[in-house]
Amino acid sequence: MIPAERQQCIRELLDARGMVSIADMAEHLGVSRMTVRRDMQALERMGQAMLVSGGARRVGRIGFELPLAEKRDLRAAEKGAIAEKAADLARPGMAVFFDAGTTCLAVAEAIAARPDLRDSILAVTNDFTIVSHLMAHAGCRLYHTGGEVLRDNKSCIGETSAGVISRLNLDLAFVSSSSWNAEWISTPNESKIAVKHAILKATRATYLVSDSSKFGRLGFFNVVRPQEMDGIITDTGLPGPARELLLRAGINLILAEPSAAAEASTRAPTSPIEAR
Prior knowledge:
Layout lengths: L2 H15 L1 E3 H8 L3 H13 L4 E3 L2 E3 L10 H4 L4 H12 L7 E4 L3 H11 L2 H4 L3 E4 L2 H10 L3 E4 L3 E3 L4 E3 L1 H8 L3 E6 L3 E2 L4 E3 L5 H10 E7 L11 E4 L6 E5 L4 H9 L4 E4 L3 H8 L4 H4 L1
Parallel strand pairs: 4-5, 4-9, 5-6, 9-12, 12-14, 14-15
Antiparallel strand pairs: 1-3, 2-3, 7-8, 10-11, 11-13
């Protein structure tokens, strides 16, 4: 059996079971464990599997993104830690782009909380929630790209937004994604591609800010190789094998440690009265 046939068998079993072990796969295919490991590594490089201890698991595919209201409080501790690491990269006077999304919103909130940055940067975004926060909590110059409105996420997408961004000279940009791996940053929404490409071309230093739960997911459309970013800022929940894979691919990986207090607050139960 040639490698392509073995890898197809592994994919089929992953689809059926969600996870397979190297030992079971070696017995099923009648090959050595080393051969199976190499096949699994090849699938991981293609974004079609994710290695775990002793085997591999199925990669989750996303067909849509959750509305802003549903995403806002998900993994808040991780987003907060990522935001603080991201804010450390900003300097007074920089022109900074904030992509749409709740992690980029957390970055904007972190920057707005820093006296040396909140009034001195020039901020650009395609996200209405970020604009609203900076209007209320920062005195910086502030621009919105405009463009086609994506109502659920309160942001703008498409060629109009991309055209505005392409005419700018930006120092620093923070880009969001709900799906990424060592091969691709992807999206389920084709209209977001032009915006992200324009950000990369207009900016001296661009960083992906995305929590570790997004790693291993696939959107339908590939957007950009992670190596084209200046770095990826994620949380320490990223598994060891994933870290090794990204580092081997030459990616600048910046890990943020969520605080114990913040993690506890995001898990704290809400009483029926508080939930109203």
